[in-house]
Design a protein that fits this description.
Strand content: 15-25%
Largest sheet: 7 strands, parallel
Helix content: 40-55%
CATH superfamily of the largest domain: Glycogen Phosphorylase B
Number of domains: 2
Number of strands: 13
Structural class: alpha/beta
Strand order of the largest sheet: 3-2-1-4-5-6-7
Oligomer: single chain
Mean pLDDT: 95
Radius of gyration: 22 Å
Number of helices: 15
Length: 377
């Protein structure tokens, strides 16, 4: 197949990086793939590091950007592209103008959306789609309920994970803790994600204080890592997080750290991983932590319950609830046997369910099916 991945976002986030990785996987398997991105140096550098050729196009309108569509059409014709993989719904209309009648268009739906999109504009856009890949069953159900996309054209293909790279033996625990300036002993809890209110760092810090009060022994042994700060994150929110951290009696053992290209060292240093997001479409960080045999606490929202089965592969708590997170931390601190059992089951579940080879094969087939629909009219 000859494929162009299209994402006009300037952010370096999970959606953007996952789309690039899918393109790189296809290219590694012998398909011709190019990546169409705006003039965003960090994102372009990521694409090039994955071996993806890049064309730069920066629309000025969110929808129906005719100049951008003309530029994209030139690229598609030059590269003899057969299929466009579009990472965001807002980019679809511009991509479809560029695609014309002959090029297949597939939506890679990686975000939640409960909005009803049965208006004339969205109906026209979604009827033109040749296929759609959702990363969760919930995402598929939302698309089927809120759009005119034919349900039979929606495939559910979660993100795959390299379980050999993310394995409990991948990172030496002492080395990981040394690299992150974490004491070799003590109970270390962590959270990984961009610093914004929706990721729940505020509730996480409050939960640490509540947990330490409920279990006084924790106050003397608790270390915490908050990893994921990026240059564009809100300075006001970061200042609030620092204030919450500084109010803790063990503040010197709570670190707020930048985004890490290789989060395995973070997971390798942890006794417990927390996903505190108010809602999460998928939760790739959960996959990673669970694959490395780190027990997890996660909020019961979005696609998370498809990864964390409460009491079996981790603990689920209500979103935006510091008390509930604290209760989970105390419960697992007091019960190392439960931590070990959850971690072992989680690793096994990730290996069996999210094997990267299986997910790639399904993804490739979804694109091939969409291309066949376009060819058959």
């Amino acid at each position: 197949m000859r494929v162009a991945t299209v994402c006009f976002s300037r952010t370096v986030g999970g959606l953007e990086l996952a789309t690039l990785r899918r393109g790189a996987e296809l290219r590694e398997r012998g398909h011709h793939v190019i990546s169409v991105l705006p003039d965003a140096p960090d994102l372009i550098a990521r694409a090039e590091a994955l071996g993806l050729p890049v064309d730069r196009i920066a629309p000025t309108l969110p929808y129906l950007d005719l100049p951008a569509a003309r530029k994209l059409n030139i690229v598609l014709q030059r590269e003899e592209i057969e299929l466009i993989l579009v990472a965001r719904t807002r980019d679809l209309s511009t991509a479809m103008i560029a695609a014309g009648r002959d090029i297949a268009v597939v939506l890679y739906q990686q975000m939640q959306s409960g909005l009803d999109k049965h208006d004339w504009f969205h109906n026209k856009v979604f009827r033109r789609l040749d296929g759609c890949v959702a990363i969760t069953r919930r995402g598929r159900d939302e698309l089927a309920a809120n759009t005119v996309i034919a349900p039979e054209t929606i495939s559910v293909i979660p993100y795959g994970i390299d379980t050999a790279r993310f394995s409990p033996d991948a990172i030496d625990r002492r080395e990981a803790r040394s690299r992150l300036s974490v004491a070799a002993t003590g109970f270390t809890v962590g959270i990984v994600g961009g610093f914004n209110p929706g990721k729940g760092q505020r509730e996480f810090l409050r939960a640490l204080g509540i947990a330490a009060k409920r279990e006084p022994e924790l106050s003397g042994t608790l270390n915490a890592l908050l990893i994921g700060e990026r240059p564009g994150d809100s300075s006001e929110y970061i200042a609030e997080l620092h204030a919450l951290r500084d109010a803790l009696p063990f503040a010197e053992r709570v670190q707020l750290l930048p985004f890490a290209d290789d989060p395995r060292f973070a997971y390798g240093a942890l006794d417990l991983f927390v996903l505190a997001s108010h809602s999460e479409t998928f939760g790739m960080v959960l996959q990673e932590a669970m694959a490395m045999c780190v027990p997890v606490i996660a909020t019961n929202a979005g696609g998370v319950p498809e990864i964390v089965i409460d009491g079996e592969t981790g603990l689920l708590v209500e979103p935006a609830n510091a008390e509930a997170i604290a209760e989970g931390i105390v419960r697992l601190y007091r019960n190392p046997e439960l931590r070990a059992t959850l971690a072992e089951r989680a690793r096994r579940f990730i290996v069996e369910t999210y094997d990267s080879e299986r997910q790639y094969t399904a993804f490739e087939k979804a694109l091939a099916d969409a291309l066949e629909r376009r060819r058959n009219g």
